[in-house]
Design brief:
Helix content: 55-70%
Strand content: 5-15%
Radius of gyration: 26 Å
Shape: globular
Number of helices: 20
Distance between the termini: 34 Å
Amino acid sequence: MKRFISKFGIVCALLLTMMTICVCSRQQTIQIQKGVVRTIQRPDKSSVYLSDVQISQRGVDTVVMSGEDGKFELVIGNPETDDAFYLTSVIKAGYELVDNNILGKARTCSPEVPTEIVMINIKEKDDDKERISKNAFRYAEETYNRLNVSLKRKLKQKSISEESYWDQKDDLYRWLKKYSSMVKDIAERYAMIDYATIDSLNASINIAIENGEMERADSLIATAGSLTQLVKANREAESKAMKQTQMNKEIEGKASADIATIRRDINRLGDLLYSKHMVCFSKAESDSAVYYIKLRAELDSTNVEWQLDAGLFIGNYLGELEDEMSFFLGRLSNALQRKGEISDEAAAYYNIIGAVYDVQDEYTQALEYYNKALKIYMELYGEQHPSVATSYNNIGWIYEAQEDYIKALEYYNKALQMWKIAYGEQHPDVVMSYKNIGQIYNTLEDYPKAFECFNKVLEINIEIYGERHSSVASTYNDIAFICNSLKEYTKALEYFNKTLQIDIEIYGEEHPDVATVYSNMAYSYIGMKEHDKAMKNLRKSVSIYKALGMQEAANNIETIILVLDQGR
């Protein structure tokens, strides 16, 4: 089951500027907020304006729809008393918001520029993620094989001892496993980049990384100069401009303009540092990867997303949970000093500290911090907000881990209802909620309700992605397992075969997912007491694992074959 503790659900993004046009009469002032909805710009796709997007705001019953040109207008609730308004939902089937944080936050009215809402096609995003993941895995495997050959050569030449050889080999294997486990998160980040908002150098670097061309990316990064020196120069310039603002009112205007330029440079430099971190990580240059992600965090200590990236890398990659906890507790302390208890920053850090405790199975402390985040989000945004839904989902996970399934269902259902209100049915967070609820029913052996939940997941996934997609294949696989639990083996095989057909179409015969489906089908045949068919499928699974060099997985299946042979 998938947890929802990624930074995407808890990071505070920059507020979008909201604009207003004022039309005056003798009786009252009517405030009209103009805006436009567009898609994300990708390397191979221009941004387009979206029609039929449903936009709702707090305190207004009417739902506004964007027109053919993506434009919309909102009437502000009470123009005589309100100088801000709040979006509560932005919905279009098959699309999701690039920045969920535009919901529920106060938007200041301004007459100059229309509000811009950016969305992404979910299927296109998922296709990009798959493409980026494949390129990343390919490059990682090439790196692993190249470094392995180099280690063997060094051992043969006796430039390293046998003990050192095995230590380095173990380190290399650990790197490959950890890198592989993080590829999906990496692909998510790059698939969500809006190329309309970044400079040409970072755009070229990102394209190279998305294509798995790490040497080219590294060469492009090098054209910017020493990143360490750039960070130092940027911080010195910012410090100087801030002092000028404080000391001399006459040059305050110029200093403020300098600060604005410096802030833009910080964002550009932050992108370069993340790319350098990513390139180093893909090359198994672990120390350098840590250095650049930490340097980025130090560049702007108020940027919560950058702090989360650094802290999570320390914990997830280095496995240094104590250092990770110390890192986030320090950030929380700074946030509380600067902004007080009730702030997005504090809530974000409470959430992530809860997640660190969660990973350590310290559920009482995790629950304490998740509840602190929930309290802040509810005070800031009220009950109906995606961040509140995220907190409910996290709390539900803790209750599930503690085997308090009734409480878990209560919180998962609360999260589901809020996400449906904010995003509509066709959204990944809604799908995840149905999965979480279905898994609880499966654990409780209430298989009809579990079947109902996963069928809902299947229905939404087919609507979003179409029939021939990995997410649809995965859902068929989940439903097949429920059918096995119901002892409806023929029906289970029907769903497994659907999974198999899609996986072979997407990945080809020699792929771990295909091998897994063959072994899953064997369990249905075992239930039907058709051992010959079960053995045939298990042997297919072993053959694929061996062809892929996955000897450990092959050994596990061969052990099952041996047990079945002995039991006949």
